[in-house]
Amino acid sequence: MFVPTRAAGLEALADFVPRAGSAYARQRNVDTGLPRTNVSSLSPYIRHRLVTEREVVAAVLEQHSLSAAEKFVQEVMWRTYWKGWLEQNPEVWRRYRRDVAALIDAGSADTPEYRDAVAGRTGIDALDAWAGELVETGYLHNHTRMWFASIWVFTLRLPWQLGADFFYRHLLDGDAASNTLSWRWVAGLQTVGKTYLATASNIARYTEGRFHPQGLATSAAALSEEPLPPRSPIPSAEPAPSGRRVGVLLHEEDLALDSLRREHSFLDDARVVSLAGYAEPGSRSPLGASEAVGAFTVGALADGLARAAHGAAAHAVGAGSPDAVVEWAAAEKVDTVVIPYAPVGPVAERTTALRAALHDLGIAFGTARRGWDALAWPHAQRGFFPFRTQIPQLLAQQGIPASPLR
Hints:
It is globular and about 65 Å long. The protein is mainly α. The two termini are 35 Å apart. It contains 19 helices and 5 strands. The chain has 3 domains: 102 residues, Alpha Horseshoe (Serine Threonine Protein Phosphatase 5, Tetratricopeptide repeat), CATH 1.25.40; 116 residues, DNA Cyclobutane Dipyrimidine Photolyase, subunit A, domain 3 (Orthogonal Bundle); 123 residues, Rossmann fold (3-Layer(aba) Sandwich).
């Protein structure tokens, strides 16, 4: 279904743009199965920034007004909002990681109930079909993800963290913020006390009668947790590196170096003497990641490196430890390594160790943050609806008109 290249992402974008207005708003919640034409299916490309949020929204608003394409633009902005919120509440991610590891160590991912759920053997027709579709394709319709999570938590009464982990290991578009926080929202943790209850009638309606699940929970009592610490400030943007020999290291969170170069002059060809990339899809979970996620991530990195190198040599370095990156930096005699800013998640975790290893060799380390994130994330302090009111202003700050230019 998904080819891990920017070219494929742009082709999917061009195909979808004519349908991004009122047609999308009317049909976006319907899941009729494969193939899908009522949604964009762009999320695997946006998640790795094979195409960026900015260019997707700009392409849509070249043909539709913001009012006509409001629902689609909001779906793109949800991902930005989630990342900004998690950036300010990193303990939520750390707690999730600890919980998943503890549940796996305790055998909770080896019970008959868990094994039946992930293998599609629960007897709930919809859930079983969706588990199979997720494993086979690496994708699920957004509305379906909510139904799945609700049945997992409130009907099967399985730990939400293991459900989020199952998704994260198999979704091509899975990212730390959207996946973790969406599961928390369904369970009543994200918006405290507010849950999402999947019903048989709603599923039958929006799957056009494909499924008629039986035995679903009729109530959804919110889960609870220990209070979270106060919100943290978003890390300050780092100053431009002063090194003369810069090595750029791409990773699976952001593979659009050309557009990042336009925002940061220190990434120009005159100072960048070497380009490398590393990806570690298996770091998503103690149980690793699916073959499909691994293949898509590695393929996306290869595509990003090839485009960024403009025909010159680029290095795909090994993952798992900072050693291979350090060896590349030393061999290329760079005095500074710069990466696209990695939001809270596995890449940011790897970055902490990498920064320390490079420092020990006297090699500076820096990050390049996109204006899209820098402008939007500070507004993600409360719920999405206050954030939503800022969308017109955020688009204007990015130079994106709210109506097509005639």
